[in-house]
From TrEMBL:
Keywords for the protein's UniProt record, in alphabetical order: ATP-binding, Magnesium, Metal-binding, Nucleotide-binding, Nucleotidyltransferase, Toxin-antitoxin system, Transferase
A GO MF label: nucleotidyltransferase activity
Classification of source organism: Bacteria, Pseudomonadati, Pseudomonadota, Gammaproteobacteria, Methylococcales
Cross-referenced InterPro entries: NT_sf, Polymerase_NTP_transf_dom, Type-VII_TA_antitoxin
Organism of origin: Methylocaldum marinum
Keyword ATP-binding: yes
Protein name: DNA polymerase beta domain protein region
Length: 94
């Protein structure tokens, strides 16, 4: 896991809870340890029962501000079938 994520892990999880997200996983280059200074941060999340698309958007914006990087936040149901298997295989829980 990338040092940037390790450094901000607690804040990431706090933001997720604030926006109704139950589980947060990291995937992509940050999870594989191959990130560069230009890499984005990819999060796979599980929305709680009360969370909405607005919460997901607000979480994305808060994470971008916290990390100073472009961020993608996706749910498992939003993943295309061809990508889902790879993402689930490499996803690392925070």
């Amino acid at each position: 896991m990338d040092p940037l994520i390790e450094e901000h892990r607690d804040e990431i999880l706090k933001l997720a809870r604030r926006h109704g997200v139950r589980h947060v996983h990291l995937f992509g280059s940050m999870a594989r340890g191959t990130a560069t200074v230009d890499s984005d941060v990819d999060f796979l999340v599980d929305l709680g029962e009360t969370a909405s698309a607005l919460d997901l958007g607000a979480l994305l914006m808060d994470l971008q501000e916290l990390l100073g990087r472009r961020v993608d936040v996706v749910t498992e149901s939003a993943l295309p079938p061809l990508l889902k298997e790879r993402v689930l295989r490499e996803a690392v829980p925070l």
